[in-house]
Every structure is written in structure tokens, then in C-alpha cells.
Amino acid sequence: MPSLSQPPSIDVHDMHFSYGDACALKSITLAIPENRVTAMIGPSGCGKSTLLRCFNRMNDEIPGARVTHGSIHIGGIEIHHPSVDVVKLRRNVGMIFQKSNPFPRSIHDNVAFGLQLHGSQNRDLIAESVESALRSAALWDEVKDRLHDSALGLSGGQQQRLCIARSLAVKPRILLMDEPCSALDPIATAKIEDLVRTLKEQYTLIIVTHNMQQASRISDHTAFFYLGELIEFSDTLKLFSNPSNPLTENYIRGTFS
Amino acid sequence: MPHIFRDYDNAIRHLQEYLLTMAAVTRQNLEQAMQALLRSDIDLANTVIAADTDVDELERKVDQTGMEILVRFHPVATDLRLVIASMKISTNLERISDHAVGIAKRARKIHRSQPLQEVQWIEPLYTHAYALLRDAMDSYTNHDSALGQSLHAKDKELDRLHKQLTRTLSEQLEKPDGGSASWLHLIFIARSLERIGDLSVNIGEEVVFLESSRDIRHEHRKPTPPTQPPSP
């Protein structure tokens, strides 16, 4: 049974976040354990994607969006400290989006792109890393004979695994996933879920999902958000069988007052 | 609190209705089986034996509805515990009804072979077993976890009465002129009532799981003494 006492990979303390004057997250305190899958659930607009995007400072790109109070530590370092290099942070904290977004280039070049961006020039080393990343993303066997074909010719599920391979190639420690299966059929979804379970041996994974069955299937811990607040965070089995908070109970059961 | 999906509410309501109907028929079967025994009423015994198929059918409906809820609505939290507990309670009710049928069949045999005045000795046992079943189902209906949990202690008294009566009935059976099969039937009837108490305790335990998510099964077992290491 996974334990919340696992060392935290991400430590959020009393964090408030606003888009301009609109407060999107209020007093979030959360310790995400490493080498575990943590699911974040809640109704639309509850702040779960906003929090996910805080972890690699993707919200920096949005004018007026800012952390107004509190801290986020990753590996013991406060990620908003002026000395933090955002590019290195994002290398360390990869992100997979709802809709797969391969570049209009070959399968090989998609995976090699991040490595080249970070200065790697050695062709043999790049080829080795591309194969390793594609194997980790459970895509190698399907694409090994057509590495130089366009990535856009892959199926939706394969494109999403290619994006995971692209993230893995730069050797992150944390993978953020924002609704990674919402555009996929059940078989492609099952492959991604199987992959998530495998990847947690080496990475910390955080997944935002509206699919509660998916959260209960693949995560070790689940956080429930409502109106910008963290309502409950516990072992997934506990949260889905005996939630502590009535708001969590109502949401996961699909009841309304 | 209603679900967003109305069909979900309807399915849960059907599940509860089937279970409560099953409990009502089971209680009636037990009452009538005992009346058949105490009043030597063969017609009533036959009614109980025939009514058991209703209980079997209701058990199937509880299972089908429970499975449908699991497949279609993926219940969680209270709903999940309700489905699991209801399906397990229905299994216990079905077995209680089987015991009632067993009592009715033995009542018929006693009446046909050698009616005994001493069938009345069974009544205190029946009163306790019936109260346990009633309390078990009341704990389910009234969401009363404390009542569900209290059944184990009450079952101890039933066990004591059963042991006492079995001893008395065995003595009768062993008498030189007491070799009637009817004494043996009474021993088995007493055993059925004792089992009905145990099955009612199981129902109470399921209610505790349903209402407070605690698994209290097997908590009352005496701890096994540690085994001695072999001497060198």
C-alpha cells in the first residue's frame, strides 16, 4: 500500500494563485510523493490544471497570472526563486497535454528535438536516447522500422505516446499529464494507463483527469479540488471507498444537493 | 442526496426494495416455520417450503441489480459499500430462509412420526434468534451502525441457550425409552436457530461496514496462543 509518508517530490505550502484579480487557488498545501502516481480531480474550473501548470511555471506565459502567496518546492528548491532557470525546470518537469502535439517532423526528430535543444550533438548518443525514450514510452516496437516517417502519420494514441517519449528523452524527474487520454479510444487509453503504471518506477507522475474511473485505476493518491481549494488528499482506495469530506463524497458519487 | 443520473437512483432504490422484500419474506418464513412446529400445522409448514422459491428469486434480483449498478454506474464511496453490503446481506438472508425451510420440513416430520409436547422447549431459542434477525434488518433500514455492532454480544446468549437445550435434548435421546427421531429433529431445529443468530450477526457486521466503513468481522475471535518453540 503506497504511503503518503513517501518523501515528497513536490512540496506546496499555503500557495495562493491569481489570474489578475481573480483568485484561482486558495491556500493549497500538498506534498506529492515521489515515484507515485497522483491524480488531481474536481469539476471544471476548480483549479486542478492551474496547479499542474504551476509545477513547471507554465502559467508564467499568461499575463497577470501569478503565485500571490506561499511556496512550491521541487527537490528542496523553491521554483520561483530568481536563480531558478525555467528552461531547466521544464526539462526536469515534463508535461503531456490533452491533445497530442507532435511537431510536423519525423518520429525520430520529434524525440531528438529536446536533446538537440539542450545542446546534444553526438548522433550515436542521440540515436541511443531516442530508442531508449521510445522503448520507455512503449512505442519502439511499433515505429522502429519507420523512424524517419512523419509523426503526423501515427494514430492518436501513438502520437500521445510519442509526446511522452519526447518528454522522457530529456530525462525529467516529474511528468505532468493534463487529461492525456481524453481524446483517445479505450485501447489507446489502456496503453497510456499501462505506461503510466510502468513509468512510476522511475518518475513521479501527476495526472489531471475528469475520468474518475481512470483516477481510481491508475493513481496511488488522489487530490480533490473544489472552487480553488484542496478539499481532500489521500490514498486513492481510501478516497474512493470512504472519503472524509462530504464535498468529495458528493462529487465522486455524482450526487447534487 | 440524489444522483445526477436518475437511472442510478432508480437502480439503487430497486436494490434496496428487493433486499427489504427479501428480509420481510425471510422473517415471515421463520415465523411461520416456528408456528408450524409449535402448533403442528402441516399446511403452514408447506406454505413456508413453497415460499422459499420467492426468496431465491429475490436473491437473484439483488445480485442482478447489484451487478448492473457496478457495470453501469461504477459506484464509489457510500454507493459502493451499499452495493457490496446489500449483495452480502442477501446471501445471509437466503441461508436464513433455507434454515426456516429446514425447520418447516422437520416440523412436518415430527408431526407425522411422533408429536412431542416438548417442542415448546425450542421457543426461547426462537425468540432470541428472531430478535437478532429483526435487529439486524432494523440496523440496515435505520442506518444504525451501533445496533449492527451490538448483535455479536446478543448472540452469546443464544449460543448459551443452544448449548443448554442441546444437552437436555441429547439426554432425552439417550434415555432407554426415548429413542424417538423427533428428539433428533429438535436438536437440528435448535442448531438451525443458533445458525440464524450467527447469520444475523453477519448482517450486522455488513451494516457496520456500510455505515462506517469498518470491517469488524473476526474481531471477536480469541487470539491464538503463541506456539512454543521446539525444545532443543
Question: Can you walk me through this structure?
Answer:
With 257 residues, chain A is an alpha/beta fold. Chain A has one domain: Rossmann fold (3-Layer(aba) Sandwich). Chain A is built from ten helices and ten strands. Chain A has helices at 48-54, 86-92, 107-117, 123-136, 140-143, 156-169, 186-199, 212-218, 236-241, 246-253, and strands at 8-19, 22-33, 37-41, 65-74, 77-78, 93-96, 174-178, 204-208, 221-226, 229-235. Chain A has a six-stranded mixed sheet, sandwiched between helices. A four-stranded antiparallel sheet of chain A has the order 2-1-4-5, covered by helices on one side. Chain B has 232 residues and is an all-alpha fold. Chain B has one domain: Up-down Bundle (Methane Monooxygenase Hydroxylase, Chain G, domain 1), CATH 1.20.58.220. The relative contact order of chain B is 0.13. The mean pLDDT of chain B is 92. The chains are: A alpha/beta (257), B mainly alpha (232). At the A-B interface, α8 and α10 of A face α3 of B.
Q: Could you give a quick summary of the protein structure above?
A:
The complex is a heterodimer of chains A (257) and B (232). Chain A is of the alpha/beta class and 257 residues long.
